[in-house]
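**User:** I keep going back and forth on a fold encoding question. It is easy to fool oneself when nobody else works the same problem. Could you pick a protein and write out its sequence and tokenised fold? Could you put it straight underneath, so I can go through it closely?

**Assistant:**
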Amino acid sequence: TEQITHCKKCILPSNFQYIDFDEQGVCSYCKKHQPVHPKPEAELLKILGKAKKKHKAYDALVPLSGGKDSTYALYLGKRKYDLNVLAFTYDNGFMSDIALKNIENATRQLGVDHVFYRPSWDLLKRLYRQVLLKSGELCTVCGIGINNSILKISEAWDIPLILKGSMFTETNTIYFEQIYDVDRFKHILSEDGLFSESELENYLIYPDLDLYKQKINSLLGKFGKSVNILFYQSVQNENTIAEILQKELLWQDGGKHSDCVAEQFSNYIRENRYGYSRSVAHLSNLVRSNQISRDEALQILIDEAPAKKQEKVEKIVERLGLSPEELNTIININPKKYEEYTFQRNRVFDKIIRTLDNMF
């Protein structure tokens, strides 16, 4: 077994995706890292101004999970930029109590309209089980469901903007598998014939949507223009943002990704399949941005060790009706099992992005 080493500056392991180390033991991600500078707010104001001039029922749609980033995006859209926003929440079947409370408080304090969509648990459970047992990935189901539902709401209500909230510190925290590719998703679900064509089409809403079509439809105005409002903000420190939300919106901090009770289960699966969890990338980004020290990041990893999350893992295993044999099958599925079944244009797009990233 190959000995796993960690970067001397952050905590990324040597088996992390697309990584290499120099002679001093510093990883390529640290060597390429540049201090975060927000985009010019004047650019954002121009985008928001155009949306307001359209005089639609809503200026912007804000996907709201109850977590820190999405709640801050809603706060900025309504409180700082005075937009008429519609908040949208997709219940993936794993929403935490703290997330539901945060959503209730935020929408009430800000006085915004809110749409809540909850697919049937019977369908979601069958989808989760099939995708897990075939690909080993949990987040595919809700990731695609959330994205396509957001687009449908923006189309149905003719909303010109979609304000997303994702911090710079979330960069590189998603894995190299194209887990949100619709074609890949359909192939996984078609293998055992457990889902009818109408079931899949109804769930997907846009069953042939790839990144190119999504971009073109956004440019043509069918879908709202997607803007990450957090990239334009001078405040980038996660603790500062949490303090603002606690004061202004009665927001409660339950920890990173506490809006989903299946996060620990998802990380458990990834730790077994990849050898590391999603949080290792996030913590490394916090170290690079000087929000926490390397020692603090390592301690958090120790506190999140698989043995300490066993109870939460078992709850999700029970909720999904997974047997010990099925769980063992899931954690032993090799990465990239279904990458050849992704949309060709998505593969080209990913290759271009990867090439550009390696150039700088």
Notes: DSSP finds 16 helices and five strands in the chain.
